[in-house]
Automatic annotation (TrEMBL):
The keyword Signal applies. The keyword Signal applies. It comes from the Bacteria. InterPro entries: BCAA_transport (IPR051010), Leu-bd (IPR028081), Peripla_BP_I (IPR028082). This is Branched-chain amino acid ABC transporter, amino acid-binding protein. Keywords: Signal.
């Protein structure tokens, strides 16, 4: 179904200059595997011959590594779910990667281009919660399903949610429940540190709620510019508060781990806890060996056939590299879309029907079974309680499984007031 502009709609109000800019920004950005699908004109997609998926990701900027992981995982997921054919029910699947540059205004332009010019049937993304929140009104206007990955802000499936929003990424509350379970308890004093962004503030708000319920006291909260590289002032205030634990929510290349080490925070009796990050950030955390926390994913944690396929295929395609933190998320998003296409017999032209079909849908992923909760379309999923350990032949502390946190154990509160 070709999307029509509504008079006075949000999409129609975008200026001609902005639309022209979006068109000029069109790129056939390729994944590292070299098999990026090329966009074609809208006529073929509308005719039922091709199903098009637009993927928004940070392919440059502070979250570039996350975008790379997501797009690699997405391409692998399409191949896994279609047995390498990239076809479902006789319909070819094409996908277009667009770089949001981790800038909400750019994300809006790229999403508009995907919806209006490329006439995609689905959107996926983005690496940043800010980018994703900016795009949500567009998918509601266009009545096209967006599978959110890996953005985690609670508000995406909370107060900013609409019926076309589904999320395979875990949300901040799921992270928080896992993080609090690792360290919170009666009388435990905790300080928190996060970027001053939707991602950071939502993450800390959810953690506080979970930790206080377990009897802990939050003695200090610090938020830093998400692009900052000097965290001295924030760390000093945390140390002055004399917490038992410092719980950190962070994402991006400019992580605070080295500065926390340089300022000898742990030597002052403060234990650090966080979600185990991607491999690049783990390489800066050698002083945190022994830390107990949680993990969204590390390639040795899940024990299932889908993850085994992912690890083996990723190594084959990418020079022996293992999948990283958000690779399985990209794969899960792709699998969910293919499962929806199968469920609908290839008829995905009506966004309302697609949304209805995906509500409550379960599907197998590298992290085991995920289910889109009917009430808010948040995917309930397994997380992992871990301990960082040093292993021979590995130049970073490895997340080692303490126990799996089952989907019902980390199920977040429903916040969308549906």
């Amino acid at each position: 179904m070709t999307m029509r502009k509504k008079k006075g709609s949000r999409l129609a109000r975008i200026s001609g200059a902005a639309v022209m800019a979006a068109v000029l920004l069109l790129s056939a950005a390729c994944s590292d595997g070299g098999s990026q699908a090329e966009g074609k004109d809208g006529a073929e997609g509308a005719s039922g011959g091709v199903i098009k998926i637009g993927v928004l990701a940070s392919l440059t900027g502070a979250l570039e590594s996350y975008g790379k992981q997501t797009t690699r995982g997405f391409e692998l997921g399409i191949d896994y779910a279609t047995d390498g054919t990239r076809e479902v029910d006789g319909r070819k699947i094409e996908f277009i990667f667009e770089d949001t540059e981790t800038k909400p205004d750019v994300a809006v332009k790229k999403a508009t281009k995907l919806l209006e010019t490329d006439k995609v049937d689905f959107l996926v993304g983005s690496s940043s919660s800010g980018d994703t929140l900016a795009v949500l009104p567009l998918v509601e206007e266009a009545k096209k399903v967006m599978v959110v990955e890996p953005a985690v802000a609670d508000s995406i499936t909370g107060e900013q949610w609409n019926k076309y929003v589904f999320r395979t990424a875990r949300n901040s509350s799921q992270d928080a429940i896992a993080g609090a379970a690792a360290i919170a308890g009666k009388g435990v004093k905790i300080a928190t540190f996060a970027p001053d962004s939707a991602f950071g503030r939502d993450g800390i708000a959810a953690f506080k709620e979970a930790a206080v319920k377990l009897g802990s006291e939050i003695v200090e909260e610090q938020y830093a510019d998400a692009a900052a590289t000097d965290f001295t002032a924030s760390i000093q205030k945390i140390v002055q508060a004399k917490p038992d634990y410092l719980f950190i929510v962070w994402a991006g290349a400019n992580s605070p781990w080295k500065q926390l080490q340089d300022m000898k925070v742990q030597d002052q009796g403060i234990k650090i806890s966080t979600g185990a990050p991607d491999i690049a950030a783990l390489k800066t955390m050698n002083d945190l060996v022994g830390m107990e926390g949680f993990s969204v994913y590390y390639h040795t944690l899940p024990d299932n056939d889908v993850n085994k396929w992912l690890v083996d295929e990723h190594k084959k395609r990418f020079g022996g590299e293992v999948p990283d933190l958000f690779t399985p998320g990209g794969m899960s998003a792709a699998i969910s879309i293919v499962e929806a296409i199968k469920k609908l017999g290839g008829d995905v032209g009506d966004g309302d029907q697609v949304s209805s079909a995906m509500e409550g849908m379960s599907f197998e992923t590298p992290k085991g079974k995920m289910t889109f909760r009917k009430e808010d379309h948040q995917a309930l999923q397994t997380l992992y309680a871990i301990k960082l350990e040093k292993q021979d032949g590995v130049d970073y502390p490895v997340p080692v499984l303490m126990r799996e946190l089952a989907p019902d154990e980390t199920a977040p509160a429903i916040r969308n007031q549906r």
